[in-house]
Amino acid sequence: MPQANSANARAWTVTVLLAAFMMINFMDKAVLGIVAKKLMEELHIQPAEFGLIASSFFLLFSISAIVFGFIANRVSSWLVLLILAGIWGLSQFPLAFAASVPVLYFSRILLGVGEGPAYPLALHACYKWFNDDQRNVPSSIIFQGVTVGLLISGPILTFLLVNHGWHSAFLLLAIASLVWMTLWFFLGADGKIAADPKTKALENEKVPYWALLTDPSFLGNMALYWVTYWIFSVMFTWVPAYLSTVLNYSPTATGWMFMVFTGMNIPIVLGGSALSQWLMKRSVSSVRARVWLSCSFVLLGGLSILASIYLAQDPLMKVILLAIGCNLPQLTFVLSSTIVAEIVPSMQRSGILSINSALATTGGLIAPALTGRFIQNAVSPAVGYDQGFVVSACLAVGMAILGFLIINPETSRRRFSAASVAIGARAPSAAS
Hints:
This protein has 432 residues and is mostly helical. It contains 20 helices and no strands. It has two domains: 7-194, MFS general substrate transporter like domains (Growth Hormone, Chain: A); 195-432, Growth Hormone, Chain: A. Helix 1 (2-34) runs parallel beside helix 8, helix 4 (61-71) packs parallel to helix 6 and helix 8 (136-164) packs antiparallel against helix 12 (251-263).
């Protein structure tokens, strides 16, 4: 019993550290948008170029996610996460003391390499400590690290920006990575739970990857994830600058408003996830409880963004509608993985999840740069921001309608089951 209690305490210690890991991760993502105005003024950077700098973060993001995902199958998660946090700190330190456009590109690209694999590998490390029926709560704690990171980025990094200059924000994040590495070195560890006994019977099922990757449900689900990441990357890159440049909020007010802006994520994502689970427990089909719910949130998000541009006149109402529009689609970050896990054989699940994430996050490679070009080429910054937001909204509406039409986990599961049976049937004859 003492050993069990000790292991349980260690498991929760690791979970809290992984939540802190994700908190730092998303503060790293948010910092560039928070210091955007001052940084652009000091380095004489035009909006289009700043958009390219922001998008460069995603240049190797997806590739790194896949590469480190497969490395983590063979190497200790404890070591891989330690290396990733080290990359974060290394990428932030140059900007803490000196900056130029080339240094900005180097910093954001290197940071993308370190942060691309962060979320899936944090969950992977967590799952080594908990059986399948115990993973929901620790997973949700780790996911809330993302939200906390975005929430506290606004006031903390803005305080440093106003009182100590924008370099100090990058210095804080570099130090935070080093502190986390120290805690992880002494308190982190790999768990001993390799696989849940209930899933072992599925390990012999295999479907050709081309069939998995060209399946309508996979493609539609990935498209929802892609447009959600598009909107998300626009949010943390350009919304702080929009609040100060177009709506004329002070730097301090912008920081606190961005905190509230991102805080809407908590009730939306937790409430949507709970609703989906409640529906599933009442035997509502997955296509309704997961797919239609996810598509509805993305659709309503796109419509809310359009309403903020074309219907709202009051600045505060614009912010509220824009915040709702940017946060509603984020339910997809939770439900997308559950849809993939539902339709893909267990032995291929980690690979397909990595590919799904890698393809979807390419939205973050395009969106900030395109929005920056709109801002620079428009007759006024306000018109440019509106153009960028309208493109995001139209993509959301289009992808949501596509999802309603083509995503059906039950149909895909039957198709893959038949394919795996056919493979199994051919194997004996081939052997004979």
